[in-house]
Amino acid sequence: MQKIKQMRGTFVFTYLVIFVVFIFFIILMPNQYVYSEQSYIQDAEKSLNTAMQQPTIEQTQTAIAQTIADFPMEIVVYNNNEVIYNTTNIANPTATLLQGSVNQSAVLMEKQGNVETNNGKTSFWYSLYQMPTAKSLLNNYFVGMIIFTTILFVVILAFVAYIQWVFFKPLNNLKDSLAKAEMNNFDTIEVVHDDVINKKFKQFTNKVSRFSSNVLKDYTELERDLENARDNLEANILYSRALVHDLKTPVHEIMMENEYKLLYGDAHVDKESLAFNVAQSDAILNQLNGILNVLETGLSNEQSVMERLDVVAIISEEKQKFFSSVRQKQLLLSVEQPEKLEVISNRVSLKLLIHNVLSNAIAYAQPGSEIEIELFGDASEYTLVCRNLTDPINVERIENNAQFFQAFSEQRSEREHQYSSGNGLYLIEELSRMLDGKYSLAIDNDLVTITIVFKELVDDETPAS
Hints:
Strand order of the largest sheet: 6-8-9-11-10
Structural class: alpha+beta
Helix content: 55-70%
CATH architecture of the largest domain: 2-Layer Sandwich
Number of helices: 14
CATH topology of the largest domain: Heat Shock Protein 90
CATH superfamily of the largest domain: Histidine kinase-like ATPase, C-terminal domain
Shape: rod-shaped
Radius of gyration: 61 Å
Number of domains: 3
Distance between the termini: 76 Å
Number of strands: 11
Order of helices and strands: HHEEHEEHHHHHEHHEEHEEHHHEE
């Protein structure tokens, strides 16, 4: 591009110089012609004056003849009123007869006068013809104009040809480069060092080539499928872990109920214990079926099943599963909720969430303390709040570890440690996210508050249960 600018500046300067010279030549030529005429007249007068200053009449006549040969003219010379030289056809020339006697179109100058010579008073009249070289000067003038015009035309033609070469050659190269780029033959694109356009295109294709290579390397179809499969597998594992975590509760409840009956029961409670064990066993089977269904069909299919649910009923159902644990730790589990709250959600996920909220609160509540469960709102937006008091060591772990589920994986009581997997808060947060809920955890001294806000889920095709 810089070269084109320099070339364009050189052409403009050359063109201006030729144009100025051409204009100067046009203006100067008439002046030069006038100057030539003036010089011609002065030379003729000087030669004629010299001729008339000769010492004798004969010498004067000879000199005048030479002057006429050099400067064509009609002339009459008088010496003491006697004609000593006459080139006209007038026998007795007088001033009246001579004036205007020659064709004025052929006359350059006409003059008459007197001069003192060695031979006395000499009078003269002459009519000087046009310069013999006038035609030659005009021819030279037109030849010069033709030469300058030709030079100007050649310069313009050369510039146009050069412009075509400068512009069209890179465009042709660019055309070839585009064809190679369309075939993904980026390496075969050649660049001449002064081809700025193609050089820029080469730089662009190099970037495209590198970018394409990175894309082909990092984002192949197989890798995308593998990434999706990995994400789905992780979600399935997480969901299955939650179900397994939920499954362990009925087993734990059966164990504690049996221990209680052994310690405080009598022989008449066998049927009641059997009925309790049967109910818990049925719950275990249902949980196992849920795990198998998730592992078989996938998490996405399981979560896609939406139905109308009563959140109050689910809380009451899940609360009953922790009867023995609440009794053993002498906890007060108070629930403040409306009589009924129907929402559209996934049954398995919502039950798992509520189960883990209760399980986490009971597991880490201080013995003899109160656990508060609060449910409020309507179908468009409802909130679940759980408050419980916990030990300072658990509070410290929560505050110092961003992965909340790890904060409760150690230092539990012996019996609680045996039957809890330590995933409580992590599962609560993940299950809240799966249900499009907003999870938050707040700690005030030894008071831990979990708040989950659910927005309305619109599903026109969800059947009412």
